[in-house]
Amino acid sequence: MKLRTYSFDPTHPHGMHKAFVFAAVLGLTVEDARWLRSKNFIEAQILNAIPALSSPLGQRYVLNLKVTAPYGQSAAVHTSYIVRNGEGFDCLPEA
Fold it and tell me: What sequence ranges are listed for the domain DUF6883 (predicted)?
C-alpha cells in the first residue's frame, strides 16, 4: 500500500517528488505500483539489501537496483526501508 499511497502519489506532500521521478524517468505511475513490487523490485533483491542504521523501530536496509520498466526505460533506483522488530522481509511495503 505504501508504494501506491506514498511513492506513486503525485498529491502526497512527501511522496509527490518520488512520483514525479518515477513517471519522468521510468514512465511509471500509480497503476504500476503492483508491477514494481512483484517484478523483483524488492523480494528478488533481498540478498543485496545492505543493513544501515537501526532504530528502536527496527533495522533499516538500503537497496541499489537497476529497474527496467515495462516500457523499456531503465534507471538506477536507490531505496531504503525498515524491517520492524519482530517482522521479516515478508512485511515489506505493499503496492
Answer: 2-87
Rounded CA gap, 62 and 77, in Å? Answer: 10
The rounded distance, in Å, linking the Cα atoms of 19 and 21 is 6
pLDDT tens by residue, the chain, 95 residues: 677 888 889 999 988 999 999 999 999 999 988 888 776 555 555 667 788 889 898 988 887 888 889 889 999 988 777 888 887 665 555 44
Tally the domains of the chain.
1
- Asked if residue 77 belongs to a domain, the reply is yes
